[in-house]
Design goal:
The chain is mainly beta. Helix content is about 0%, strand content about 50%. The strands form three sheets. A four-stranded antiparallel sheet has the order 1-8-3-6, with no helix packed on it. Strands 5-4-7 form a three-stranded antiparallel sheet, with no helix packed on it. A two-stranded antiparallel ribbon has the order 2-9.
Length: about 110
């Protein structure tokens, strides 16, 4: 069985996709940011408070997330003050595109 979880439209063809394992320290907050090429990922441990555009969710291990290209992310924060949270993220990028732009709203 295959269940479609999400779909985003990319403007143009990315020249590469970079994948990362990210560990958020207990209580760590991402701050306001966006990803010019977008991001698709899954939380692998812990709990994350997620706020992207009009979407506000608490993500737990096994939950997937999508941040469309350029979407403002207000929160991607470790919800626990005691335990780290880990996620795997894949970023489609065009030549010369930044992975992460901190402190800017789109």
């Amino acid at each position: 069985m295959r269940e479609k979880l999400s779909s985003i439209t990319l403007s143009g063809m990315p020249t590469r996709i970079e994948g990362y394992r990210v560990v958020l320290k207990p209580g760590q907050a991402s701050g306001l940011h966006h990803h010019p090429g977008g991001v698709v990922g899954v939380v692998t441990s812990g709990t994350v408070q997620f706020s992207c555009g009009d979407e506000v969710r608490q993500l737990a291990a096994g939950d997937a997330f999508v941040e469309p290209p350029g979407a403002t992310v207000a929160n991607f924060d470790n919800a626990s003050s005691q335990e780290p949270a880990t996620f795997i993220a894949y970023y489609p990028l065009a030549e010369g595109m930044e992975l992460f732009v901190h402190g800017e709203s789109c």
